[in-house]
Amino acid sequence: MKLFIDSGNIKDIEALVAIGIIDGVTTNPTLLAKEPGDYRQNLKKICDIVKGPVSGEVTAVDVAGMLREGREIAKIDQHMIVKVPLTRAGIQACKTLSDEGIRVNVTLCFSAAQALLAAKAGATYISPFVGRLDDVGTNGMELIREIVQIYNNYDFTTEILVASARNPIHVIEAAKMGADIATCPPAVIDMLFNHPLTTIGLEKFLKDWEKTQAVHGVDAVKA
Ligand code: G3P
Prior knowledge:
Layout: E1 2-6, H1 10-19, E2 24-26, H2 29-33, H3 39-50, E3 54-57, H4 63-76, E4 80-85, H5 88-99, E5 104-109, H6 112-120, E6 125-128, H7 130-135, H8 140-154, E7 159-162, H9 168-177, E8 181-184, H10 186-193, H11 196-216, H12 218-222
Parallel strand pairs: 1-2, 1-8, 2-3, 3-4, 4-5, 5-6, 6-7, 7-8
Helix pairs in contact: 1-3, 4-5, 6-8, 8-9
SN-glycerol-3-phosphate binds near residues 129, 132 and 164.
């Protein structure tokens, strides 16, 4: 399963990409609005760092506006993916842009019916928001299970990009269900690394090793 960073912060992205486990980046208007500088230049920098798919979202709500913005976003870098919202206009724009060879990520997906429409419109990615569904008392991961089944039934090539992931359980469940990608904020990626038994175990290994060095260390060898 691919792992994307859900952030527009250059420093956070640089630090995580350096580890070597990141496949791409997703942004949205809220995330980009937090960062200083021109958003197009920031997206270009992110593409240069990650050298994989980077989603940048249109803010127009009509088809013509989405197409205009989408084509501009696609020109920023070969790695750019155009993100459009799952509205009637967004689905129409997705179909047109996809037919032109521009890769589209359809975002703000909250139902299996919506995911079916995005696949039919040729979306490269569908972004179901699992955390926001959990927030309103609906099991977000159940939606992922439904989309996996529907896409498998018809061999749709649209990749399932689990978004609004808030904790490691979202990521683990996504992997178990066979989702293609999970996109996570840096804080959630940090959580994936952590386990208290790893910390305790490493502390003990190092303490035990220090004791060995006291007995068989450099001075002991010289004597
Ligand atoms: O980028 C879209 C999505 O991941 C947003 O997550 O936590 O704001 O619901 P969140």
